[in-house]
Amino acid sequence: xxxxxxxxxxxxxxxxxxxxxxxxxxxxxxxxxxxxxxxxxxxxxxxxxxxxxxxxxxxxxxxxxxxxxxxxxxxxxxxxxxxxxxxxxxxxxxxxxxxxxxxxxxxxxxxxxxxxxxxxxxxxxxxxxxxxxxxxxxxxxxxxxxxxxxxxxxxxxxxxxxxxxxxxxxxxxxxxxxxxxxxxxxxxxxxxxxxxxxxxxxxxxxxxxxxxxxxxxxxxxxxxxxxxxxxxxxxxxxxxxxxxxxxxxxxxxxxxxxxxxxxxxxxxxxxxxxxxxxxxxxxxxxxxxxxxxxxxxxxxxxxxxxxxxxxxxxxxxxxxxxxxxxxxxxxxxxxxxxxxxxxxxxxxxxxxxxxxxxxxxxxxxxxxxxxxxxxxxxxxxxxxxxxxxxxxxx
Length: 394
Ligand SMILES: Cc1ncc(COP(=O)(O)O)c(C=O)c1O
What we know:
The protein is of the alpha/beta class.
């Protein structure tokens, strides 16, 4: 039967990582990778995670099955982190634990299709490279709304609103909660409010992907858009990932949070979500979620984790500033100040595909053709070389 299959091309980022690894130049720089790395190039296990893991080794007494919803204590902690402590007392929110943010996105799309097979999901152009395949493979209809204007290097907000003005009642609007991947450009408070007005007026359904909570400004600040929508609309879907903010990438920890009109509907939605999970992967993995749950319920561990998260944010901010300052010196006729307006791990450098090719070939600076950089690839030791390399191809 397998002879009917044809090979799938390798993911372009994985190809780039492979090319970087086999490059023998000592000064090579990897700006393509999609995970957080510290100044030594390592993706660390957070202190709080190590301590929580040790606690689990000592105290956990069973590895028996969890239900399809996952662990209720974990779900409650994530729900509070996303919506705040006050939310949820009306019973309108149903939260389930998922294998990462990707698992949550897939379950959310399956669920949306079960309730409305004709639903359209609007995704930003550009968006995270896996959004379209991950959601689209469910059969859900996707449409793009403009998001980024490469000329002004800012959000094309007018065009975004115009496009969303064409959305029909009940359509899903996929928004990045913070740290937009790949542009790094987030909606301002005023822009979130305007989107909320539009969504409310046209009876659209916000579908917010919160994959970097804590990476932009802080846990509370980064939930602004989600919480605003919760106050304004009767129904919404949120997907959350603990891959970045807890550094638990391979342990697959995430959650799907659904807001329904009332408690009774939330219970129905919850039972449907559990059915979808049961027929896809039965139940989520436990270990990483148990670690997150322990950290969020232990005051000392939680405080330590928040300190670590703060250090990550400071490093990202510091490296952005250092790169822009070095570019000002190396290429004084060019303006890269838009990078200072980006948050999280990513930003578009704003150079052409041909210039990217030269950066890779002549200087060993690896990034995708779109010129998306992962700021974590910048270190105090390579920032000058990087700025000189960029200047050399302008
Ligand atoms: C915007 C966005 N959403 C979702 C995810 C998926 O994260 P996870 O690894 O938790 O599945 C990512 C991962 O890079 C992402 O960038």
